[in-house]
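User: quick one, sequence for these tokens?
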């Protein structure tokens, strides 16, 4: 899915070495379906040319407040009125200061003051400049005025120093822009998500687990934040980075066993929606060995199992008593997807369940799912797990 289809974005570029990243950013925005109009300051043209940006966007670049190509000679009005969003990347300390004080002495600063659309800025500067009290005051004033700051992040800078002040990478800014345009259907809601596998120890070096990369659960966490929710993500052992978005924060708790996941979930039961995405082991070893079990002399190994607590069923009981959370289960099946998914929804006593044929999608970025509630079934995919997550969030928001 093209997430920014027909979105009109004014991409402002101010002076700074990070301007070289603006070319890639423009390309990514257009690739995602956006129409990009570039506006550059005089300082920006010392780092990257207008010719480069025009070639990438297919649109003439505006650099002059008095540009005669605009019929009424009011480029600052015409450009801002035609935009769904103004994005400045990079945004220098100088431009941040001017915007925070309402100063406008060139086209980019003037159209920002004259805008009637949202403004996002991606700061980029030396770490001392970013940490300076004057810049921090500028940042706070901009936030108070409703401007969204994307970053900065920490890393090696062009000056050779290492620290905060580095502009986000173009792909990260793209993710922030896509998230910004998502409808905030879960604003103010608290969302609890379990993701990944659990691990049940046999001895200190061995154990049993379930197939799960955690990618679907992490995608739902990101989609929920995009939709304005407060998110608590309880993750079993996996190697995924917590989604980071300037628009919201994901609180992450890492667990190992099904019992630990159960305890963490019940401790956060006061939520509005619970997504039970994790592949929780149904069974655990009765008495895990305290020392490594040696193979020597053994022809077989006898293990005794006992059932793990049923996290989803327990949360469903809480929902029945208190009216929330709205519980969404997941079912990874190997056959009879429709029948098994529907039976599991009834057995667990939950309003909605998402089923998929597990082996074909483990670890993949893509998925195909069947979403089942009491009255309907809806197939989604093949699609990216993030796109499926966004559609699932939209469906759940309507049930709320």
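Assistant:
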């Amino acid at each position: 899915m093209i997430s920014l289809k027909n979105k009109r974005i004014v991409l402002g570029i101010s002076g700074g070495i990070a301007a070289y990243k603006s070319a890639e950013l423009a390309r990514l925005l257009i690739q995602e379906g956006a129409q990009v109009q570039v506006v550059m300051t005089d300082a920006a043209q010392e780092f990257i040319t207008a010719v480069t940006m025009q070639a990438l966007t297919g649109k003439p670049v505006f650099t002059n407040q008095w540009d005669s190509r605009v019929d009424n000679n009011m480029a600052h009005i015409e450009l801002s009125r035609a935009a769904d969003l103004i994005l400045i990347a990079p945004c220098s300390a100088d431009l941040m200061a001017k915007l925070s004080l309402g100063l406008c002495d060139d086209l980019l600063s003037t159209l920002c003051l004259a805008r009637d659309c949202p403004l996002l800025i991606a700061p980029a500067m030396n770490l001392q400049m970013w940490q300076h009290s004057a810049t921090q005051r500028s940042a706070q004033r901009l936030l108070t005025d409703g401007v969204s700051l994307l970053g900065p992040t920490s890393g090696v800078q062009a000056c050779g120093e290492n620290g905060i002040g580095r502009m986000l990478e173009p792909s990260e800014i793209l993710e922030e822009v896509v998230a910004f345009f998502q409808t905030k259907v879960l604003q103010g809601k608290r969302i609890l998500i379990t993701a990944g596998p659990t691990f049940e120890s046999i001895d200190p070096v061995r154990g049993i687990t379930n197939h799960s990369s955690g990618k679907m659960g992490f995608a739902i966490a990101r989609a929920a934040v995009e939709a304005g929710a407060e998110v608590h993500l309880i993750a079993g052992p996996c190697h995924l980075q917590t989604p980071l978005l300037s628009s919201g924060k994901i609180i992450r708790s890492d667990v190992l066993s099904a019992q630990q996941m159960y305890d963490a979930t019940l401790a956060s039961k006061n939520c509005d929606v619970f997504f039970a995405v994790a592949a929780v082991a149904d069974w655990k070893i009765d008495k895990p060995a305290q020392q490594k079990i040696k193979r020597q002399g053994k022809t077989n190994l006898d293990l005794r199992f006992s059932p793990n607590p049923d996290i989803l069923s327990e949360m469903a009981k809480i929902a029945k008593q208190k009216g929330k959370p709205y519980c969404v289960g997941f079912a990874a099946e190997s056959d009879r997807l429709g029948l098994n998914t529907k039976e599991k929804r009834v057995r667990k006593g939950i309003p909605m369940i998402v089923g998929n044929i597990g082996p074909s999608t483990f670890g993949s970025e893509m998925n195909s799912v069947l979403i089942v509630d009491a009255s309907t079934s809806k197939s989604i995919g093949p699609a990216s797990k993030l796109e499926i997550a966004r559609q699932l969030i939209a469906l759940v928001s309507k049930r709320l």
